[in-house]
């Protein structure tokens, strides 16, 4: 409303000021009825114009707000795994490389043990429930600034920022224990207690990197993947640290 009043005031005052200046010149006296006309005319013209312009500005503002909200939603759809709410594979790998370029940390590669048996025995809907429960447990266990993503299927990954291998191994064990404590009831009354195998790899452990250099994201994931398969081969439901 104040914008409308400001626009009307500007139009009227500009017209009246121009008439006042003109009336100061010799022979340019302006009769009183003209003053009334000079006041009313811009008032009548500027009022609807200012109202229309203000409405258009408000519509543009609302459209811009909707556009910004749509862009945020599109970005989220592009970066987040829709089932679990974690980072999707492409986003996790991109941000992992960005973090690696800044400061080395430790990567955990996580695979759900015997997940195919859960899908085959209880159906894919139950399998999705298990994955969602595991994703929620991962988010609740790690630090808020750590990266957590679903790489695909029953495979997850965590990047622990600026965390040495000793502390990271302890964190990985906490993650494993948190998943082991999940108790998910199936429709037939049975309970599913999922477990995970975890491979951990610290960035400074890359043999191909120079002294003091950190491993690339691909190298880090490859080493964590090898450690995770070693955990599976050794009986599952455990954490293995890459050499």
UniProtKB/TrEMBL annotation:
Residues 53-80 form a coiled coil. One of its GO terms (cellular component) is plasma membrane. Keywords: Coiled coil, Membrane, Transmembrane, Transmembrane helix. It catalyses: 2 GTP = 3',3'-c-di-GMP + 2 diphosphate. The keyword Transmembrane applies. Residues 103-243 form the GGDEF domain. GO terms for molecular function: diguanylate cyclase activity. The chain crosses the membrane at residues 33-53. SUPFAM superfamilies: Nucleotide cyclase. The keyword Heme does not apply. InterPro entries: Diguanylate_Cyclase, GGDEF_dom, Nucleotide_cyclase, Rev_trsase/Diguanyl_cyclase. Its EC number is 2.7.7.65. GO terms for biological process: cell adhesion involved in single-species biofilm formation; negative regulation of bacterial-type flagellum-dependent cell motility. It holds the Pfam family GGDEF. This is diguanylate cyclase. It comes from Sphingobium xenophagum.
């Amino acid at each position: 409303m104040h914008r409308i009043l400001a626009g009307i005031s500007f139009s009227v005052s500009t017209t009246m000021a121009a008439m006042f200046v003109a009336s100061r010149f010799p022979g340019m006296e302006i009769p009183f009825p003209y003053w009334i006309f000079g006041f009313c005319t811009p008032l009548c013209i500027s009022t609807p114009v200012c109202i229309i312009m203000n409405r258009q500005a408000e519509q543009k503002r609302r459209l811009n707000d909707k556009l910004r909200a749509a862009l945020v939603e599109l970005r989220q759809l592009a970066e987040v795994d829709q089932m679990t709410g974690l980072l999707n594979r492409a986003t996790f790998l991109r941000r992992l490389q960005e973090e690696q370029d800044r400061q080395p940390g430790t990567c955990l590669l996580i695979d759900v043990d015997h997940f195919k048996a859960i899908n085959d025995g209880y159906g894919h809907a139950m399998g999705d429930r298990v994955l969602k429960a595991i994703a929620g447990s991962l988010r609740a266990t790690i630090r808020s600034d750590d990266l957590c993503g679903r790489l695909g299927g029953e495979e997850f990954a965590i990047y622990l920022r600026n965390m040495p291998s000793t502390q990271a191994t302890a964190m990985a064990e906490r993650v494993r224990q948190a998943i082991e404590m999940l108790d998910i009831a199936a429709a037939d009354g049975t309970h599913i207690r999922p477990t995970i195998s975890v491979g951990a790899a610290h960035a400074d452990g890359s043999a191909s990197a120079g002294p003091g250099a950190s491993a690339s994201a691909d190298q880090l994931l490859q080493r964590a993947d090898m450690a995770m398969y070693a955990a599976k081969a050794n009986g599952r439901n455990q954490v293995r640290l890459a050499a």
